[in-house]
Amino acid sequence: MVECEDRIGTDPPADDLAVVSGVAALPDAGTSGPLQAVPRVNGLRLRYFAKRGLVAGSDRTIDLVVPPEERHRLAITWGSPGRLTWHLRVSCHAADATWLTFAGGYVTTRRGCVSLIVRADGRQERARIGVGARCVEE
User: Measured between alpha carbons, how far is 102 from 61 in angstroms, rounded to an integer?
Assistant: First the structure.
């Protein structure tokens, strides 16, 4: 769970982000370049970190889920302190902002295209994110 006090900003999503399901702004694999993935030196199996804040709508509960088929190579982390996880819930209903930004990013075993499921309001949508490499259309 990401806590409201973990937010680092309230700006609307930047132009290089795509708003997924109307509730979360994530790097758009189709229009933005890949995120820079830097090596992690801490002995973890997950070896690359791509720092990119999460911009989330403040009026809904949002679940960000790493799909089961990606869990051998991807984890996510946002908040303070950020912890590696496969499922992160954002439930911060702030009266003073429409969008909330949280520090964190993506941790992977290798550079490439990854998927993340965004769930809110009984719906879900899959986002593709280039971590250290562009996503290639299939």
Answer: 15
The tens digit of pLDDT for each residue in 101-127 reads: 999 999 999 999 999 999 999 999 999
Cβ atoms of residues 98 and 11 within 8 Å? no
Predicted pLDDT at 39: 82
Instruction: Provide the whole-model pTM.
Output: 0.90
Distance CA 48, CA 111 (A): 7
**Contact in structure between 134 and 50 (CB atoms under 8 Å):** no
**Per-residue confidence at 74, pLDDT binned at 50, 70, 90?**
very high
Other CB atoms within a 10 A radius of the CB of residue 42 amount to: 8
The residue behind tokens 């490439």 is: 112
